[in-house]
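Researcher: I've been going back and forth with a colleague about how Autophagy-related protein 9 might be arranged in three dimensions. Neither of us has a model we trust, so I'd like an independent prediction. The organism is Zingiber officinale, in case that matters for your notes. Sequence below.
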Amino acid sequence: MMFSLKKGSIAPARWKWPHKTELPLTTKLLRDVPPEIELSDYRKLPSSGPDSPSGLLNDERLDSELIIDLDLFFERLYSYYCQKGLWCIIIKWIVELLYVIFMVGFIAFFLLYVDWDALGKAKCGVEAVELGEKPCDLPKEVIKQHPLVPFTIGKAIIIGSMVILTLYGLLNFLKFFVQLKNIVKIRHFYYNRLNVTDREIQTTPWPTILEKVVQLQKSQQLCVVKDLSAHDVVMRIMRKQNYLIAMLNKGVLAFSISSWVPGAGATVKSRITGKKNHLILPKILEWSLSWCIFQSMFDR
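Model: Here is an independent structure prediction for Autophagy-related protein 9. You can compare it with whatever you and your colleague have in mind.
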């Protein structure tokens, strides 16, 4: 059983059980063992009093606010490291936006404006000279002046795909500006608290970054509940993936399907029926588990 310690909470002096009779040995063991603390819930501590952050830091000045959600913070820290700095992230977003613009323009030009029937029948250049005809003006012959006339089902599908791509690019564009504030905060953390620049991130191994985070925990208390180790940081980053791996290992995602079904994996014996079921984890199921379960399990 896990207990969550919040701001201003005081641990009970003794354990109370609903039964009137208690075993002295059991009561003593339970009282001696401290409760396990859930680290996913944090609140900002008051700025005054002996338990304030200044007291925890031994009169050291706190330059930034305490981290409310360590799981999310370490995920962003690792994501920033994997993307190798702010300018690499900006270039990536620009390239993705240009890719969407290119795809929309490509679809519009080649599927709506180009008259492929006229292009096949057009006689220009050497072929027209051999036939004794006047060379045609290829742009006028091939490019449609009114691409949506007549409006057919095929053109409606093409326009629908262009609208979907445009909305996707617009959402990515807005998403970048929404996430830019958090990205700049992580960059500030790397520069000012870990003393690692974007250029150094290109060649610095991840274990070195972890070591700097652990050393920072000892001096500035990123986590005010307990001291963090490199293992704690990695486990927080991999927490959702570890739960998913555990579900696979326990056979939770094993179904009674045939082996010829695409995506069917190894067989796992069911504890209920005793039959062997095949593991399967398509992307849709993985995304559904991530958004519907894991995101809610490890939120603030």
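Researcher: What would you highlight for our discussion?
Model: I'd start with this: Residues 153-192 form the longest helix (40 residues). After that, consider the following. The chain has two domains: 66-228, 238-300.
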